[in-house]
Amino acid sequence: MDTNDSLRLASLWHSMHAISQQLSPTLGCNGIELLQADTFDLHCFQSLTGTKFFVVCEPGTQHMEGLLKVIYELYTDYVLKNPFYEMEMPIRCELFDMNLSQAIQKDRVSLFGR
């Protein structure tokens, strides 16, 4: 996906997430955390600051909540502490990208043995 497609997806998800919080019959609902489709699952983690992180994976993949929390930790360590990063802008941080790739590879190895 290019940057515009990512922004459209994020905008659509943000709207659905906000509407689901308002329409939920459960008090204290935090919005949609998992969207299951025939060909993929979309997991969402919303931080306390409101920043949302997504993982798109094969249907039924386990432990994505843990991976999302690791991604959030990497975000706080490498992006938020970067003096050149501006909030609400696309993330362009080499250290974040490198550590994110390592975390995903580690998660893939632990899940699939590959």
TrEMBL record:
N-terminal signal peptide: none
Any one GO biological process: endoplasmic reticulum to Golgi vesicle-mediated transport
GO cellular component: endoplasmic reticulum; Golgi apparatus; TRAPP complex
Keywords assigned by UniProt, alphabetized: Endoplasmic reticulum, ER-Golgi transport, Golgi apparatus, Transport
Pfam families: Sybindin
Gene3D superfamilies named among the record's database cross-references: 3.30.450.70
InterPro entries: Longin-like_dom_sf (IPR011012), TRAPPC (IPR007233)
Compartment list: Endoplasmic reticulum; Golgi apparatus, cis-Golgi network; Golgi apparatus
Family: Belongs to the TRAPP small subunits family. TRAPPC4 subfamily.
Subunit structure comment from the entry: Part of the multisubunit transport protein particle (TRAPP) complex.
Protein name, entry field: Trafficking protein particle complex subunit
Classification of source organism: Eukaryota, Viridiplantae, Streptophyta, Embryophyta, Tracheophyta
